Amino acid sequence: MILVWSRHTGGTARRVIGYLLDETVPVVIGGRRDRIARDPAPEILRGDPRIVARTIDILETERRYRCATLSFAKNEVDIEKWRRRDRETLRRIDAAIELWMETAHSGFAPEARPPVLVSTHLHTGRLEINILVPACVMVPTASGRRIPRAFNPHPPVAASRVAWAAFEDTLNGAFSWHDPRDPRNAAAVRGPSWLERRAAALGRWIEARRGQGDDREDGRLDPREGARLDQEDARPRLLLAAKSIARGGATDRAGLLDGLAPMLDDLGWQVGGLRDDAIVLAPKDGAEGTPLIFHGTLCDAAPTPPDPMVLAAREQVLAAALERLRAAWTARAAENARVYGPDITRPSDLVDPAAILRVPAAPVLSAGLTLRRLAERLFDRIAHVAGYDAVTHALAGWAAGGGFDKVRRSLAALAAMSPIPRPKRVGTEVEGPTLPNHDDGPAP
Predict the structure, then answer these.
(1) pTM for the predicted model, two decimal places
(2) What is the DSSP string of 343-354?
């Protein structure tokens, strides 16, 4: 799991909340705007979007919100278990959310903390937990009202980077999640962050359009969509191709370059240079600006297996993560108390992160999620009542068809039968009725 902070911190709440919750997302492919459906649709886990939006929109500061994403690798969280509401999966995600809340607002009293919106993205084929928080804390006034005062849960200082690194390490170590700082988990091919996002969006558009149009069933793009793809920027297409070649089994830089060669020719690009730790690609005519640089294990001139000493050091870092997180919370709480005063801070009331990892606090569910769970229980009750009604209906039909008369006749016939002799005790033996022996004929 890796924690990613959005670079966007201003603008209206509608824009950021729309990005988090809209069931379609806009993309520009080949110079034309399009929309991709998010399937499954985003889900609200905690918070009310309207309350969060009102809080963000009343802020007059340049930084109005912070948005963070807990991004999981595909093999970290089983999507099917998540959708089935597997108890252990939910417990771990709840713990991660609670740990984020406490790291963000260490030392602040509950009533001083702003409302938070937590939602999911699953359309990428893996779980993403998005957390949106207004960039403020709530300060009491003489009249008893509370007004916002600017607060940044992740300021650009070393102490904050240390705290959030401890947050990541604590969760990854506790739940054996994918550790992004483990050398064994290094990406085979990676581009600049902006290009990674662009390539991911392009890949989702291709998957959404593949096999569509003219009743195609071969999984290929419709010719019209293919023509749009041909007009798309070459850079995300090259990154997608490089990642596909890496997944296809390329084992070194030579194999990666051999796989890329046909596409480079088609797009009018070339290998602009080879560094010890990177591949440099550039357009042949120099028309598209700066060169494109790929890093990763497949882009190294002489990739080497991770150093055992480095791996051992990384394991020690994970083992000490919980203590580092405790220390970070204590330091952040003390600093928040110094800056914001005793009215809204409780540095002595810090919770133990180990307790959250064991049993996270009961979440404040969103209104939508609460209603959905109530509806599920109601539908279960309706199904139970419907089943009861079905049994009652069947019994009524049985009675109307003479069922009770048949039972009465059977009981009357049974009552008219001769009584069965009861066995009597003779001495220590039991003398019972004499039964016929079907092997030797009737008994005398």
Answers:
(1) 0.76
(2) TTB-GGGPPPHH
